[in-house]
Amino acid sequence: MDQSEFGQFVAALWERQGWQTQVKNDDGRTFVAVQRPNGGEEGLLWAIPDGEVGGQQVQQFAKLCQQYEVSESAIVTAGTVSDHAEKVSQGSGVELLDGEGVARILKQKEWTDLAEEYGDGGANAEAETGGATSDGDGSPLDQLRAVGDRLGSKLSAALGGTSVPAKPAVAVVLVVALLAAGVLSGVSIPFLGGGGGPVSAESVSPANSTTTLSVAWNARVTDTIDPDESDGKAYPAPRGKQFVLVKMRINNTGDAKTPLKKSAFKLRTANRTYGHQPLAEHEGFIDFPISPNQRYVGWLAFAVPEGSSGTLIYDQNATGTPVTVEFTRDSSIDVNVSQR
């Protein structure tokens, strides 16, 4: 695919997830502005058809998205992602999806028709406007164009000097071949369903609750957790599984002290509910009684099957004390393994 075709392909991929899209070209770069219907959350994608995405590109794109307060952001490429880019992306809010990841998505969702359509250069005029139609002021497309104009202004200045290293393109025909071979498995589409990853949360409010915990949280999926880069120790996910790292800022907004236990926070997938995954020599969450107006920051890791989606829940039985828990996703929280 050339630059324009790949941008339209990425837009079509997000449309399949229920987003409205608009492709924007800026000085040889292609961006896709996305928005949930009815004025919902907004996102910006940088579509790079080939080469290797580097850490500098991630840093510059993250700066741009922070400048315009974009709630969701991702770099999507048919090429590869450097180790430095992966490292920089952690906690930056920018998710990365490489060529193999795109292939896995197409296989899992049975959307290989997209690769065939755009790989053959079959992009049509409808794709250029994200499949939406304009019927005057206030239509979905008109609203989306306004979003695109706002997010797209000053792109050249914000990303000045960025270039994509010249490396052989990963052709879509290779993607299709990998799919046919059946060698690729589970991956998550960045901010599928909104909210920055394949994780949601479920607030609870028992009738006899004695206090309220306000939990701001964010999450990301990773294959390895490295709490201390200086000690040479890292924790790879078990075979066939991935880590879901959840960072939480907890505030007791009630009038009573209540036990705060890591065992109460669990991740529920379609098949089962998982407790946190202990990591030897490293604790991201400490059990203690949290007082009214007291705040606490902690993180938990859950090991779940690759490709799983999950819901963060609070188990009332873990403490024996009924508590109202209000979960709010905050995409500005850096999902790292510090207590800041």
From TrEMBL:
Keywords: Endonuclease, Hydrolase, Nuclease, Signal
Annotated Low complexity bias: 123-132
Pfam families on file: DUF4352, Mrr_cat
UniProt xrefs under InterPro entries: DUF4352, Immunoprotect_excell_Ig-like, Restrct_endonuc_IV_Mrr, tRNA_endonuc-like_dom_sf
Region ranges (Disordered): 120-144
Highest taxon above the source species: Archaea
Domain Restriction endonuclease type IV Mrr, first and last residues per copy: 1-105
Signal peptide: none
Gene Ontology BP terms: DNA restriction-modification system
Ranges where the DUF4352 domain occurs: 229-318
Residue ranges the record marks as coiled coil: none
Gene3D superfamilies linked to this entry: 2.60.40.1240, 3.40.1350.10
GO molecular function: DNA binding; endonuclease activity; hydrolase activity
The protein's name: Restriction endonuclease
Origin species: Halorussus gelatinilyticus
Species classification: Archaea, Methanobacteriati, Methanobacteriota, Stenosarchaea group, Halobacteria
